[in-house]
Amino acid sequence: MGVSNLATSFNPKKLPKTPLFGTDGIRGKAGDILNASFTVQLGYWAGKVLEEAANNSGPIIIGQDSRNSSDMLSSAIAAGLTSAGLEVWNLGLCPTPCVASLAGDSEAIGGIMISASHNPPPDNGIKFFGNKGTKLADPLSQKIEYHLRNSQVQDAINPIWGKRYHRPELVGEYVKMLGASLPQNISFKGMRIVLDLAWGASVKVAPAIFKQLGAEVISLNQSANGDRINVNCGSTNLESLQQGVKEYKADLGFAFDGDADRVMAIDSKGRVIDGDYILYLWGDRLKQEEQLPDDLIVATVMANLGFERAWEAKGGKMQRTKVGDRHVQAAMWSTGAMLGGEQSGHILCHHHGVSGDGIQTALHLTALVCQSGSSLTELVDNSFRTYPQILKNVRVEDRERRSKWQECEAVQNAITQAEAAMGDRGRILVRASGTEPLIRVMVEAEDRELTSYWTEKLVRVVETNLAA
Fold first, then answer.
1. Is there a domain that residue 373 lies in?
2. At 237, which CATH number?
3. Residues whose CB falls within 8 Å of the CB of residue 38, separated by 6 or more in sequence, listed in order
């Protein structure tokens, strides 16, 4: 039975009118857009486009997180790929950067990760990587979407089917890469580290490599559990990790998201050490080692003003991009920057790879602490002070209203009023999330009262005019 028979219930006319691909692949509630019939078609056309772009034959690597729907989506997309005549290497449970790393370092023509990252359990997503391990270029994702909307898959008269192979042992190659990226002979012996694994994709990899390097590891949320992934834990909910670090009197702690491409740290005092601090500390080390071209760090519009001004005071430069690690990545390629990332914990270091990697970032921050002879607490105390920054999310379920929020006159007028009132004492960022049905409102200012006032006012306007 061919792919057109497998996906008879797929109707392109029922697809949303807004673009399917967001800032990080296709994401939504499992069983809604991301159902079996759609995903088979997606696999078929993604395979055709990736094969054409690579100009050679090779396998597609698939990985997944622990969500209950990930098995279904992994099987469906593999069915589409093999119907297109392609070979599939299925890694099973693994971090997203594992897929990216193997796609770039093997004969594969691309990679696919089944995950909704930090989203709640009912959601899922499909992320694509090219044959160099980088996020799929916009023209290729647009081509896949065009075929999904306009082309009809036909069974070949003499079909050549691809095969699917289970290759979990390849995750070990990724683990070797993580170790090889660290300073030679580094040891974490004597360090006590708490890891919040978020019931997700890092459960097998992260504790193992930290223990191999000599650390005493306490793991929280340490098994793969699709019902609990990211629920009150992980990089977006740090309370349990903060408690764990204090309870176990640990040197530091790390929280990964569901697919382990981002990380947040906690110091021994229980303070949150976000991506801005990680970029500053790692950037300072690379700058001292003359491994940071033009002393440039790429960050997003979310990066704290305190970070930016402190980095500039050290003689460094910062370039801001739109939110999303794909935009950070693009700026790094165009400028030659070697370090970039997001406040949310997506960190990219081109000395060691082309993908944001939470586990690798955690390892390098730990190595930096070991080499410094200071604690993470001391390093942070001697870095910079953040400006008060408040981020609030407003849920806007209507996809079209959310994508066209900038056309709302009331919201634009409120933003203009707030910017005029704050002047150069602060800044405002309102944007639609590329991964969730949210409008994000961020206000940052020297004064916390000013920050709180304008955040609340803008949130009320968005709720009234877009969410109602």
1. yes
2. 3.40.120.10
3. 7, 10, 15, 148
In this structure, are residues 95 and 261 in contact, taking their beta carbons and an 8 Å threshold? yes
**Any idea which residue has 């708490």 for tokens?**
194
Give, in order, the Cα–Cα distances in Å from 202 to each of 89, 237, 273, 383, 466. 19, 16, 20, 29, 37
Q: Residue 311: which domain range?
A: 189-381
pLDDT at 156: 47
267 is in an annotated binding site: no
Annotated binding residue at 66?
A: no
Indicate the residue type of 301.
V
Number of domains in the chain: 3
Out of 83, 117, 141, 344, the active site residue is 117
Q: Is 37 a catalytic residue?
A: no
117 labeled binding residue: yes
Q: Tokens representing 270? A: 């229980």
Residue 198 within a domain: yes
Stretches in the chain below the pLDDT threshold 50 = 1-2, 4, 6-7, 156-157
Tell me, yes or no, whether 362 and 402 share the same domain.
no
Q: Are 172 and 204 in contact (CB under 8 A)?
A: no
pLDDT tens-digit map of 231-277: 999 999 999 999 999 999 999 999 999 999 999 999 999 999 999 99
**Can you point out the beta strands (E) in 153-233?**
164-166, 192-196, 216-220
Q: Give the number of residues written for the chain.
A: 468
196 is in an annotated binding site: no
Q: Which DSSP string do the residues of 57-88 spell out, in sequence order?
A: ---EEEEE-S-TTHHHHHHHHHHHHHHTT--E
Burial class (CB in 10 A: 0-12, 13-18, 19+), 209: buried
